[in-house]
Amino acid sequence: MRRELTADMVDEVCPSGLSPFRVGDKWAGLVLKLLEDGPRRFGELRVPLHRVSLKVLTASLRALERDGLVSRTEHTGQGRRVEYDLTPLGRSLLGPLAVVCAWAEEHWEELLDARESYDRAAARGGEASTAATPAATAAASAPAASRVAASGASGA
């Protein structure tokens, strides 16, 4: 039996609302993973995150720092140097993050297929929400699998 959804079901102070993985911050998990082996300078983080603008990466680091997951240390001396590192709280998130990454890797092709089906239906002007039927997903599986193999993507 389905439960009726009521206005007070989601408390504003629910811990899930404090999650560092905000809808608008798709880079938080990658930043945490990149800091797994120790402190990194901003420029070092930019190498694997070259697609991320300076503004967005800075905002992501600040949000992680605000949440207590990343520490920012400014070194003075010959030139200014700033390093970012995981806090103990941030390090405690690596295990759950690994589980989410493993799930995404396991379901990579299914996710690509669903997106492709949805996008194809939306492009035709159809109801995109009904596009991800089993038949549509099956029809899209070959192109997505080919695309993954051609790009060399591992799903992570």
Automatic annotation (TrEMBL):
UniProt keyword list: DNA-binding, Transcription, Transcription regulation
Listed Pfam families: HxlR
Annotated Gene3D superfamilies: Winged helix-like DNA-binding domain superfamily/Winged helix DNA-binding domain
UniProt region (Disordered), positions on chain: 122-156
A GO molecular function held by the record: DNA binding
Domain HTH hxlR-type: 14-112
Residue ranges with Low complexity bias: 123-156
The protein's name in its UniProt record: DNA-binding HxlR family transcriptional regulator
Native organism: Streptomonospora nanhaiensis
